[in-house]
Write a structure and sequence with these properties.
640 residues; mainly alpha; Glycosyltransferase; 3-stranded antiparallel beta sheet; 20 helices; 10% strand; disordered N terminus; disordered C terminus; binds 1-deoxymannojirimycin; glycosidase; hydrolase
Length: 640
């Protein structure tokens, strides 16, 4: 393809051999392969140049081939030509001279391009490999900057919801104030150490004093702790720290990374965290970053059913599921915990794409048969069939139920479809999974392989708060019943803490064979700074103002400060039944996002983030209630 036929003739062959650059060959130390590559690229440039002239020359080819008519744009109709769709048809022999000139002009142009390409190649060869690499990098940076500029376009303004109670909450009681200040000090200790030793990494190793990350964030360094902590810093009035975080996000948070991340975790921690920071502070950068990131998650929904993959590569958009999940399935608590954030994204951007994705998931789930009315934790995104029939209100299932309730609350109670799904699910859970132990402790077990496993996870303890939150508006006006159920779960989970040496709860505990609310297996005895029990104390406090919840919250605060605090931050512990615990050396980002936030709220007045106006996502990021009565996110009647 190097020599293009032009009017039946060929250009003289090009001499691109070594003799073309004898001087450079002698002086340059670049490898021969590299030189050949450069020559080849010059040659390709030439070919491309010539190629782009083909359409023009083809006109003349037709002429040379002796066609009767030739298409020439813009010829005066007064010469008797026929107008044909913007072109004029003229007879043979018209202005042969002009065509020869045109031919000559093209030939000269190609020659000039050829010369230029050779000159460029020679210039390049004079440069060192490092210089060339630096040039390539500069060009790359330019492209990235351009893309960034394009991505950072302001979004259309939307009316902000009623944002009340975003600071203060200062209690009058000096004892409560002191406790609240202690929790703020713990937040500062966690943040300052992350700032010093783990800045920009996802999490901190407080003993090794360096950055840490888990596979949920792939191999990325996306500052998960910064994003997760922002709103806690804000409500605690740690404004300098908040600004530091904002600056880092503005300058460094980039989602074009070749990294395979968990769609669920990135949604609840990053999108939830950024949206909450936006609503609290009004800083556009958070909204823009949230929308950019959401765009990177969308390819995960490209499955035969629209049920998203568990993981997606942020750069390539390729998705897949966890290797350990039953029959290649996606996980209920993962694809079912996107609704709140995605509704807000559609609200803020005016783009229904996010809303449509999550509504599609909901519609699909609604249509499916459920064994005993229970939702199994596994659903295959290719076939649309359930995987293993394992149902849990803890890990793998938990926040799916939470988001049904919260979708209803967040829609100002307009999304009655979500409320109905929640009520149906909770009824089935109560019937099949909730039991009382011999010692009178109410627990939520797990349905596995056709029978009830009498085991409850720390994660399941969030359900006490969920039952209390959903009490108002429950079917058959069973508000009292659900508040009571919430209180019973809170009590059981408190027992799981109280029956340990460290007064911190284990990861999972049994109600079997004479054991009550105690972990049996060694690998279930750890505490990794999780929030769920404290979360339930806070909801129960808000709905009952029973002082025992503050007392239990304070017990947990003291235990965390005593056993998890190290000079480099806070760490999880491996065995809550051991009097000399060993550390796991991880300061989880949810410790700053959730555990410390719920504790702080527990010792604040109720006017800080009132529950009539704010709904907390599953990572404790508060999102405002949307009064969507007159807004259509996608023509869905639930929102009309
Ligand atoms: C958090 O990331 C969220 O609360 C999630 O819903 C469950 N697990 C952790 C905390 O334990």
């Amino acid at each position: 393809p190097a020599l293009l036929p032009l009017s039946g003739r060929r250009l003289p062959p090009l001499n691109l051999g070594a003799s073309a650059f004898p001087h450079h060959r002698a002086t340059l130390r670049l490898s021969e392969k590299f030189i050949l590559l450069l020559i080849l690229s010059a040659f390709i440039t030439l070919c491309f140049g010539a190629f782009f002239f083909l359409p023009d020359s083809s006109k003349h080819k037709r002429f040379d081939l002796g066609l009767e008519d030739v298409l020439i744009p813009h010829v005066d109709t007064s010469k008797g030509g026929k107008n044909l769709g913007g072109f004029l048809i003229h007879g043979q022999g018209h202005d042969e001279h002009r065509h020869r000139e045109e031919e000559e002009r093209l030939r000269n142009k190609i020659r000039a391009d050829h010369e230029k390409a050779l000159e460029e190649a020679k210039e390049k060869l004079k440069k060192s490999r490092d210089e060339i690499q630096a040039e390539i990098q500069t060009e790359k940076n330019k492209v990235v900057q351009e893309l960034k500029k394009k991505d950072s376009k302001p979004l259309p303004p939307v009316p902000l919801p009623n944002l009340i109670g975003i600071n203060s909450g200062e209690p009058a009681d000096p004892d409560i104030r002191e406790k609240r200040n202690k929790i703020k000090e713990m937040m500062k200790h966690a943040w300052d150490n992350y700032r010093q030793y783990g800045w920009g990494h996802n999490e901190l190793k407080p003993i090794a004093r360096k950055g840490h990350s888990t596979n949920i964030f792939g191999n990325s360094q996306m500052g998960a702790t910064i994003v997760d902590a922002l709103d806690t810093l804000y409500i605690m009035g740690l404004h300098d720290e908040f600004r530091e975080g904002q600056e880092w996000i503005d300058k460094n948070l980039d989602f074009s990374v070749n990294s395979e991340v968990s769609v669920f975790e990135v949604n609840i921690r990053f999108i939830g965290g950024l949206l909450a920071a936006y609503y609290l502070s009004g800083q556009e950068v958070f909204k823009i970053k949230a929308v950019q990131l959401a765009g990177k998650l969308l390819p995960a929904f490209n499955t035969p059913t629209g049920i998203p993959w568990a993981m997606v590569n942020l750069k390539s958009g390729v998705g897949r599921n966890w290797g350990w999940a039953s029959a290649g399935s996606s996980i209920l608590a993962e694809f079912g915990t996107l609704h709140m954030e995605f509704v807000h994204l559609s609200y803020l951007t005016g783009d229904p794409v996010y809303y449509n994705k999550v509504m599609h998931i909901r519609k699909l789930l609604q249509k499916m048969d459920r064994p005993n009315g229970l939702y199994p934790n596994y659903l295959n995104p290719r076939t649309g069939r359930w995987g293993q029939h394992h149902t849990s209100v803890g890990g793998l299932g938990d926040s799916f139920y939470e988001y049904l309730l919260k979708a209803w609350l967040m829609s100002d109670k307009m999304d009655t479809e979500a409320r109905k799904m929640y009520d149906d699910a909770i009824e089935a859970i109560e019937k099949h999974l909730i039991r009382k132990s011999n010692g009178g402790l109410t627990f939520i077990g797990e349905w596995k392989n056709g029978h009830l496993e009498r085991k409850m996870g720390h994660l399941t303890c969030f359900a006490g708060g969920m039952f209390a939150l959903g009490a108002d508006g429950s079917r058959d006006d069973k508000a009292g019943h659900y508040l009571q159920l919430g209180a019973e779960i809170a009590h059981t989970c408190h027992e799981s803490y109280d029956r340990t040496t460290l007064k911190l709860g284990p990861e999972a505990f049994k109600f079997d064979g004479g054991v009550e609310a105690v972990a049996v297996r060694q690998n279930e005895k750890y505490y990794i700074l999780r929030p769920e029990v404290i979360e339930t104390y806070w909801y129960m406090w808000r709905f009952t103002h029973d002082p025992k919840y503050r007392q239990w919250g304070w017990e947990a605060t003291q235990a965390i400060d005593k056993y998890c605090r190290v000079s480099g931050g806070f760490s999880g512990v491996k065995d809550v039944y051991s009097s000399s615990p060993t550390y796991d050396d991880v300061q989880q980002s949810f410790f700053l996002a959730e555990t410390l936030k719920y504790l702080y709220l527990l010792f604040s007045n109720d006017d800080l983030l009132p529950l009539d106006n704010w709904v907390f996502n599953t990572e404790a990021h508060p999102l405002p209630v949307l009064h969507l009565a007159n807004t259509t996110l996608s023509g869905n009647p639930a929102y009309r």
